[in-house]
Amino acid sequence: MEDNFQKLNIHFDADALREAYEFAVNNLGFSGDLVNCISLILPSNSDAEQRGIFWTKDQNYEEVQVEKFVDESAYKIFQPILMDTYFKNVYDTLSQHFKIGRVRILKLNPRTSLSYHRDPENRLHIPIVTNPGALMIVNNQCVHMPANGSVYHMKTTEYHTALNGGDEPRIHLVATILDENPEEELYAVYGGD
Question: 28 near 37, Cβ under 8 Å?
Fold first, then answer.
């Protein structure tokens, strides 16, 4: 089995995640250029790009760059309005084990998918709201991540996509990993939940 997905030995309270998500939606909402994103970490430079560089393939199967480089290390300021939410606990816990950049709440609408692409860094995914039709695919490996408080390391430096074949939005907390040297005991190869 490929190891494009690894479930970490870190677990969060699923109900507290959903409560923090509802607070974020009610107080910040999905707005701006990224209508399906709520940023939990802000850049020290307010002019910094929110969308980051990624690569996809054109109709000739040639790799092409999309968007511009984003300095992930500039994302250091926790969203003030969310300081008293469970997301601050999540951020602090993840930061104890990883050097992380952008941390966002990403919404994938029903019956939609992302482009098939690769990113410059790997990502941590924490499902908050999901359904049986919400799937992540990396190379030829496809998994469903339940919204039960689990944390998954995903090899997004490989070609991947997400699809939501369900009737409700899929909501994930996604954190960019800036280092790849966490403690070995954090990892348990994904075997399904």
Answer: no
Instruction: Tell me if 44 sits within 8 A of 57, measured CB to CB.
Output: no
CATH code, domain with 149: 2.60.120.330
Q: How is residue 75 written in tokens?
A: 């994302």
Q: How confident is the model at residue 70 (pLDDT cuts 50, 70, 90)?
A: confident
Residue range of the domain that includes 105: 5-45+52-189
Full 3-state SS string of the chain: CCCCEEEEEEECCHHHHHHHHHHHHHHCCCCCCCCCEEECEEECCCCCCCCCCEEEECCCCCEEEECCCCCHHHEEEECHHHCCCHHHHHHHHHHHHCCEEEEEEEEECCCEECCCEECCCCEEEEEEECCCCEEEEECCEEECCCCCCEEEEECCCCCEEEEECCCCCEEEEEEEECCCCCCHHHEEECCCC
**CA-to-CA separations, 5 to 13, 30, 73, in angstroms, rounded:** 21, 27, 24
Decide: pTM greater than 0.85. Answer: yes
Looking at residue 38, its pLDDT comes to 92
pLDDT in tens, 120-134: 999 999 999 999 999
Q: Domain count of the chain?
A: 1
Query: What b/e sequence results for 161-180 when a residue is b if at least 16 CB atoms lie within 10 Å of its CB, and e otherwise?
Result: ebbbebeebbbbbbbbbeee
